[in-house]
């Protein structure tokens, strides 16, 4: 549930950050802009940290029980993508302080490029982690 909430928050914030600031009300981006993108920053930081902590707790089970089975079945591409996921999540964790500082007030006269770039990078990392985790979990029916 934490990962789904994180996906929703970062996706909403990313679309709002990329959307035009002068979007007309009622349009696709206008609806995303009706909620200030900055209001998601604290939630994203907390949800990312909690999701990483929970992932670290269940990682031992994956490493001991699941990974050897995937290796025996020669699912090297899945393991490679999962290893990339681990590295990306660590990079995202290191980016969280910069991300949080960029979304703090005052936002009025600051250029949005840094916020948009950091939000997009985190969105990519979060979506990559979510999808790779599901593929690794479901590739041989684990966790069902």
From TrEMBL:
The keyword Transmembrane helix applies. This is NnrU domain-containing protein. Keywords: Membrane, Transmembrane, Transmembrane helix. The keyword Transmembrane applies. The chain crosses the membrane at residues 40-62, 82-101, 121-140. It comes from the Bacteria.
């Amino acid at each position: 549930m934490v990962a789904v909430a994180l996906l929703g928050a970062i996706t909403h914030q990313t679309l709002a950050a990329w959307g035009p600031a002068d979007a007309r009300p009622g349009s696709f981006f206008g609806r995303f802009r009706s909620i200030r993108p900055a209001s998601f920053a604290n939630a994203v930081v907390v949800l990312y940290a909690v999701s990483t902590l929970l992932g670290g707790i269940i990682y031992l089970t994956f490493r001991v029980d699941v990974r050897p089975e995937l290796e025996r079945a020669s699912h090297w591409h899945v393991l490679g993508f999962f290893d990339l996921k681990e590295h990306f999540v660590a990079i995202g964790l290191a980016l969280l302080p910069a991300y949080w500082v960029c979304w703090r007030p005052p936002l009025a006269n600051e250029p949005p490029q840094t916020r948009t770039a950091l939000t997009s990078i985190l969105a990519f990392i979060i979506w990559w982690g979510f999808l790779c985790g599901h593929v690794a979990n479901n590739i041989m029916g684990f966790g069902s």
